[in-house]
Amino acid sequence: MTSLLKRILLGLAATTAFYANATTEFNDTNTQNYLITYQQGAIPAQYQAKLIKNITTLTAGTVALIGLTASEAEALSQLDGIRVEQDVERNIVLPLSSEPFSLEKGKSDISLTNYINADFEALEHQEVTPYGIGLTQADKIPQPDNNGIKVCVIDTGIQGNHNEFQQTNVSGNHSSYSHFWYNDASDHGTHVAGTIAANEDGKGIVGVVANGAVDIYIQKLTKTASGENSIMRVSHILEAMEVCANQGANIINLSLGGYASSETERDVFDRIADKGILIIAAAGNHGSTAPSNDAYMYPASYLNVMSVASIDEQTNLSSFSAVNDAVEIAAPGSRVLSTVDSESVNIEYFEFNGLDGLYYWSQFKQIDAGNISYPLISQLNEQCLFKINFDTFAEQYFTGEISAASKAKLDIATQSCKSSNGEVLITYFDVPSYVSSWVSEIAHNINYATEFPTLTVSSLVGRFINANGLMLTAYNQYKYGYKWGTSMATPHVSGIAAKVWSHFPQCNSTQIREVLNYTATDLGEEGRDDQFGYGLINTKASYDYIEQNGCDIPASACPKAWYENKAYLNGDQVTFNGEVFEANYWSKNAAPSLHQAPYEEWRKVGMCPTD
Questions:
Q1: Which runs of E-coded beta strand occur in 510-609?
Q2: DSSP run (H or E) holding 189
Q3: What would the pLDDT profile of 127-158 be if each residue is shown by its tens digit?
């Protein structure tokens, strides 16, 4: 579930009819997938046949996927020794446009001469260093020897034959529904991998580790970043984490997430971190209007995960970067230049003729079109502009899918466009008047795919397009591209951790993490803050510190932060929201500031302003 959808629900001036219509999908005859953690022999016989598969094990028991109705899930959760959780969504943290608005004035006309990207063309003949490499001082330390450090990238795959990975040992695996790991129909995984490990070869770009000394393992989970097979579940992430761990990964990069926490997911992440694997994840692209008042994204916000915020080239916090007290470190994520899949069909620029006769460019969501080439300039017609009923939006929100009936309508619209000799189908949601007006400005994702070129635009744009005008859809024919997002900041941290660790393989994952935080360049408020965490990651400072002082940082005057899944004994001290608390007796999952009193779980004993 995206933050955008959560914001939409908050902004809905919903009518009874809307909710009645949208919630008809739910009744007790529907079976959904749940995660259960159970001890052997704890599940009654009537549930055994409903087990889909075992995923992994924890100290608390086996984690499995099971298909249950809501009432069955409730009944099973009441039994001793069994934990039941819904298998909630996780999504790729989608890169953002450089502009926050959906509709901007375009050129005075449409022609190919108005869209030329000389920067990308030049990279076919010369090599540049993206600004993030210099800003993090990743180019200020030597390239390492290959000491066996491996980064596992859980993402949308990679263009396996891209020239920037020829010196790197790249291997991988893919889920049953995602197609081959060495293909990347969305560019997301290829872009992430390029920041970590693009090779120095005289052309294109260089990554953090440019000499092939760090191995990359690709665990592909999705076919596309939006559209078909874009939504993952916690169960998919847990399986992918196990694959990464079994493949000997030292670092796991997760430019993905969701807004519902999971105790089962957290427990598995804790166990994998305890194996000595450093886990790094995107903080989220949902922005914030006030510090410490933002939604958490998971897995980034679990204690054993480094949550990465995004900054721009001037070290300002990116407008989209999540702000919360789980943010740990910051890295460049605005307008990051990296590798893209030159063999996939990805529209980069969309401009159209409006009803007022002028030309505009707009944000859009691309529906995966296989290997069909989008036309560069096309004449639109009324059969190729399709208004999607808002009920379809509600279906997707409440179930993660659009219904077969809605897909059938989209299929008919596609055929109608093709039959009229149209070249691109443009779709948009018909946003009703009782929904907050800003929702109309957003190009929403839609879980639908076709082999015909299709763009989904915002309601505002869809209502304003001249259905008989011209449209320019320019795609990137080169091997490089710019993207914005905490997804792009995260691989900077993963690459730097791998580079520093390769120089000092005697350090463990906890020490590497602590050194990266300790040596970060402070940004924003003095000390750790909710915008930048400990600050901008600083490769040279981390390298120099370990070379001069070893792997351990100085002991802190502050105890470690409280963690909701940890059991505390009488006398244990923790830091919570800048204050130090001491346990009065055994407790677990009792937040200190909410349970402080002489006879409650905690008592306040001091301050920790540097935490």
A1: 567-568, 573-576, 579-583, 587-588, 602-607
A2: helix 188-197
A3: 999 999 999 999 999 999 999 999 999 998 99
75's CB contacts (< 8 A; 6+ apart) are: none
285-327 tens-digit pLDDT: 877 644 444 678 999 999 999 999 999 999 999 988 999 889 9
CA distances from 493 to 333, 488, 501, 504 (A): 11, 10, 12, 16
- Please give the order of strands across the beta sheet that includes 61-68: 51-58, 61-68, 32-38, 82-86
What are the angstrom distances between the C-alpha of 140 and each of 3, 500, 551? 37, 11, 20
Q: Find all residues with CB under 8 Å of 427, minimum gap 6, and list them.
A: 367, 386, 387, 388, 410, 413, 446, 454, 455, 456, 457, 462
* pLDDT score at 187: 82
Distance CA 454, CA 451 (A): 9
Nearest Cα to 416, choosing from 456, 443, 387? 387
Average pLDDT over residues 262-269: 95
CA distance 408 to 588: 50
Per-residue pLDDT of 9-52, as tens digits, reads 333 333 222 222 333 233 456 899 999 999 988 899 999 999 99
Contact in structure between 563 and 302 (CB atoms under 8 Å): no
Chain length of the chain: 611
Average pLDDT over residues 493-518: 97
How far from 170 is each of 12, 252, 510, CA to CA, in Å? 46, 14, 25
Angle of the 486-503 helix axis to the 539-549 helix axis, nearest 10? 30
Q: Collect all residues with Cβ–Cβ distance below 8 Å to 16 and sequence separation of at least 6.
A: none
The tokens describing 130, both together, are: 């993206």
Instruction: Give 38's strand partners.
Output: 62, 82
> What letters, b where the CB count within 10 A reaches 16 and e where it falls short, cover 367-402?
bbbeeeebeeebebbebbbbebebbbbbbbbbeeeb
CA distances from 161 to 56, 202, 204, 479 (A): 33, 17, 14, 11
C-alpha span between 345 and 334 (Å, rounded): 23
Distance CA 601, CA 499 (A): 43
CB 470 within 8 A of CB 358: no
Could you tell me if 352 and 385 are in contact, meaning their C-beta atoms sit under 8 angstroms apart?
no
Helix or strand (DSSP H, E) at 443:
none
Cβ-contact 47, 76 below 8 angstroms: yes
Reply yes or no on whether the pLDDT at 276 is more than 60.
Answer: yes
The stretches of 49-146 forming alpha helices (DSSP H) are 70-77, 118-122, 131-135
Q: In one letter, which amino acid is 162?
A: H
Q: Please give the Cα distance from 226 to 367 (Å, whole number).
A: 7
| Cis status of the peptide bond prior to 491, with omega within 30 of 0 | no
Q: Which residue stretches of 223-347 are H helix?
A: 234-246, 263-274
CA distance linking residue 481 with residue 491, whole number of Å: 16
Assess contact for 313 and 307: CB atoms under 8 A: no
More confident residue, 571 or 207: 207
User: Which of 119, 183, 104, 530 is CA-nearest to residue 335?
Assistant: 119
Closest CA to 377 of 114, 99, 97: 114
DSSP conformation letters of 387-419: EEPHHHHHHHHHHSS--HHHHHHHHHHHHHHHH
Q: How confident is the model at residue 443 (pLDDT cuts 50, 70, 90)?
A: confident
Q: Count Cβ atoms below 10 Å from residue 444 Cβ, excluding itself.
A: 22
